[in-house]
Amino acid sequence: MTAPAASRSWTVAVRQRAVRAFPPDQLLPDKQPIYVAAWIYVFGVLTLAAFLVVLLSGGVLAIEGPQWWHTSSTGHFFNSLHLWSVELFLAFMVIHLWGKFWMAAWRGRRAMTWITGALCFAGSIGTAFTGYLVQTNFDSQWISTQAKDGLNSVGIGAVFNVTNFGQMLMWHIVLLPLVVGVIVGVHVLQVRKRGVVPPIDVDPIDLIPEQGR
Amino acid sequence: MTSILTRALGAPINLNHRGHYVHWGVIQISVANLVVIGLMVAIFAAAILLPFPKGRGRK
Questions:
Q1: Could you tell me if residue A22 is inside a domain?
Q2: What's A89's domain CATH number?
Q3: pTM of the model
Q4: In sequence order, what DSSP letters do the residues of A180-199 get, joined into one string?
């Protein structure tokens, strides 16, 4: 009697590679090094929490459409929830960025973590700007007519037309959230893979989860 | 009841006017944006300086 031959299917190969890259206790850890117990390390997860509220409130707004908030107090509430969660999302992300910049968070083969974080930041700004364009009010009209001059001057106005409401709505609620969501996912996986960056002057004993002092 | 709710949930500052701006050479910024940036810097400083509470069971 012989042992069954190892499957050579692509699903097995992908699973084995995923488990090798992200062992379950590393993907969903329950312990972190002692230096992570500092307020500056909280802003990454605050950004993620705000992003979740942005997606949920945006999803509710999508059910009734972009003009709902003009005529319904419930719509107005969810529109405000969407606005303020975006404000907090970007504020938390910028404080997270400041903290990581000053601790040189690209150290220890964390270049890809840093790059995906920067891409998240740039993508979020683009998504927020297209949000300005789909408020369906005079503010969005003003912003779109100002933005078109800038975009026309760099030659992309014909392809990315900020005065085309339908196009901007689709960019805002489908394409850009998808891009930002995927990059955020890759960023979090990179943090799991390389670990949370230690302070520059960390004692090597503090690198071990929960065994520091 | 509605007026109480409106007063409780309404903006504590009257925002129904044109924005105030600060001019400093080529730099022009609204007071609202300046206040937000100031708050973010203050929160950043607090996050660096304030001690993090130790959880139960943490050494």
A1: no
A2: 1.20.810.10
A3: 0.86
A4: HHHHHHHHHHHHHHH-SPPP
Q: Do B59 and A213 touch (CB under 8 A)?
A: yes
CB atoms within 10 A of CB A112: 15
Residue A164 lies in a domain: yes
Residue B59 in contact with partner chain A when CB distance is under 8 A: yes
Q: How far is A43 from chain B (nearest CA, A)?
A: 9
- Tell whether B47 lies on the interface with A, counting CB pairs under 8 A: yes
pLDDT tens, per residue, chain B with 59 residues: 566 766 666 667 777 788 899 999 999 999 989 999 999 999 999 999 999 987 665 55
Residue ranges of domains in chain B = 7-49
Tally of CB atoms within 10 A around A191: 17
Q: In which domain, by residue range, is A159 found? A: 35-198
With a CB cutoff of 8 Å and minimum separation 6, the contacts of A137 are: A70
* ipTM rounded to 2 decimals: 0.81
Question: Does a structural domain hold residue A10?
Answer: no
CB A86 within 8 A of CB A131: yes
A91 neighbourhood in chain B, CB within 8 Å: 36, 40
Is the CB of A94 inside 8 Å of chain B's CB atoms?
Answer: yes
Q: What is the pLDDT of residues A79-130, one digit of tens each?
A: 999 999 999 999 999 999 999 999 999 998 999 999 999 999 999 999 999 9
User: Which of A32, A36, A40 to substitute to test the interface with B, most B CBs within 10 Å?
Assistant: A40
